[in-house]
Write a structure and sequence with these properties.
Blueprint lengths: L2 H15 L5 H19 L9 E2 L10 E9 L3 E10 L4 E10 L2 H5 L2 H19 L4 E7 L3 E5 L2 E4 L16 H11 L5 E7 L1 H16 L8 E5 L3 E6 L5 E3 L14 H9 L9 H6 L1 H13 L3 H4 L12 H9 L6 H9 L6 H33 L7 E6 L1 H5 L3 H13 L1 H4 L2 E5 L3 H17 L2
Parallel strand pairs: 2-5, 5-8, 9-12, 12-13
Antiparallel strand pairs: 1-11, 2-3, 3-4, 6-7, 9-10, 10-11
The structure holds beta-D-glucopyranose (BGC).
């Protein structure tokens, strides 16, 4: 190894170490989250919104056909879901659409029209004239009823003009009517974290009516968030992506990213900006630009979001001797690299992802302690999302952190259930529960 490469390596290791998140730094983060949950719930200042969801745990016997809309990122889908009444569910058909960057910054109506047209195609293809519809809106929204949700400031790069303060359920209803779909009637609006939680409960109780419902729903994809069943206070959407108690593990890279993005605004979604799929690649890009003149001179590496978390996942999974995948990615960014350099890049990506997983572990501990200070009972966390499913070993890192913070015995009572593709099916469960509530 040349002297230059050796000093690069030392520099790379130092940079990677900045993303360490030892238990001593995570413990105060977990405690802060528990405290902020309590404050948010009683309306005191808090970075956690603790939003009402107007749903309750399913019995597991919900049945019927529900049209669902899942909108939470660059893609949206319309689907037809059939609930079997015994914890089983099936996606009968789906229609996907992709939004452009222009869609994300325009007026809301054209976006709702695109969604309504996808519902129209699905309904026509499946011969559905009339059905209840469940709408998963995976952005912050204050529900006032199960079918009324007032949009708060958006996340994940969306900024529709004038959306804030409007009822997204009413906007979708109006778009459905414009598309001639008057008999597809919005029955429920929900967050994706709540859909994950509800699907896990529906499955468990469909198998065994006495099974305890899930306690926490976690999404770790483009964005991140948690929902939790607080018993008498109901199932709440924490909007934990906005948690601001991240100071103990924040780096200069995080501070710069937060400051320089205009959407979400500086100071908003601090936790999400360090943890979720939308940002991990961007953090790595910023770190790479700092590695030396060759890196900072690459025009491709100067483009914000030129790296995404799928790249991080692929780099982490690269088991080739010469790190071929890392090489290919760096070449695409105009930076030819030595094997040593590729190892640094891979280690940096791993350090960023590992910190994300450890922060998620700490946040879950914070929520679990709010539910049960002593963690005496068994608890179930339902998880979904592309980062959770796609990054090699992510779940093991989260579990390891929970073990460090809670101790082996308490941690052994926490079950983490991966509910893949939960959003649409979970939304159908929520609509069926809403129908049962209405008929009571
Ligand atoms: C949104 C949440 C959502 C999460 C996961 C966040 O950006 O604010 O509402 O649950 O992403 O999709």
């Amino acid at each position: 190894m040349t002297a230059m490469a050796a000093s690069d390596e030392a520099g790379g290791a130092r940079t990677a170490a900045r993303f360490d998140a030892p238990a001593s730094a995570l413990e105060p983060i977990a405690r802060d989250l528990t405290r902020q949950m309590a404050r948010g719930l009683v309306g005191e200042p808090s970075s956690l919104r603790m939003l009402q969801t107007f749903t309750r745990p399913p019995s597991g016997r919900e049945r019927g056909r529900v049209v669902v809309v899942d909108w939470g990122g660059t893609n949206a889908r319309a689907g037809l879901v059939e609930l079997g009444g015994d914890g089983s569910a099936r996606m009968v058909a789906e229609d996907t659409l992709t939004f452009s960057e222009a869609d994300k910054r325009g007026a809301p109506e054209p976006v709702f029209d695109l969604i309504a047209r996808a519902v129209g195609r699905l309904a026509q293809g499946q011969g559905v004239a009339a059905a209840p519809l469940a709408f998963v809106y995976s952005y912050p929204a204050r529900l006032e009823r199960i079918d009324r949700a007032i949009a708060l400031a958006s996340t994940k790069g969306w900024r529709l003009k004038g959306l804030e303060g409007q009822d997204v359920a009413a906007l979708l209803g109006a778009a459905l009517r414009r598309a001639g779909l008057e008999r597809i009637v919005l029955a429920a609006v929900a967050n994706d974290t709540v859909a994950a939680l509800m699907l896990q409960s529906y499955r468990a109780r469909g198998r065994d009516a006495g099974a305890r419902p899930a306690d926490v729903g976690l999404i770790l994809g483009t964005g991140t968030n948690q929902a939790a069943d607080l018993g008498p206070a109901g199932i709440r959407n924490l909007e934990s992506g906005n948690f601001d108690g991240v100071g103990p593990v924040e780096t200069a890279y995080d501070a710069a990213l937060d400051r320089e993005l205009d959407e979400p605004a500086p100071g908003a979604q601090r936790f999400e900006k360090m943890v979720s799929g939308h940002y991990l690649g961007e953090i790595l890009r910023r770190v790479l630009r700092d590695l030396g003149p060759r890196w900072s001179a690459s025009p491709a590496l100067a483009i914000p979001f030129a790296l995404d978390s799928a790249h991080l996942s692929r780099m982490a999974a690269d088991r080739t001797a010469e790190l071929d995948d890392v090489d290919a990615r760096l070449r695409a960014l105009g930076v030819p690299s030595t094997v040593e350099e590729r190892r640094h890049v891979r280690a940096l990506g791993a350090a960023i992802a590992r910190r994300a997983a450890r922060l998620v572990g700490a946040a879950l501990v914070g929520t679990l302690r709010f539910l049960d200070t002593e963690l005496a009972a068994r608890r179930t966390i339902a998880v979904d999302g592309s980062l959770w499913g796609g990054y090699p070993g992510f779940e093991a890192l989260v579990r390891e952190t929970i073990g460090e913070l809670l101790g082996v015995e308490r941690a052994s009572r926490i079950e983490i259930a991966y509910v893949k593709d939960s959003t649409s099916v979970g939304a159908a469960v929520i609509a069926a529960v809403a129908a049962a509530q209405r008929s009571e």
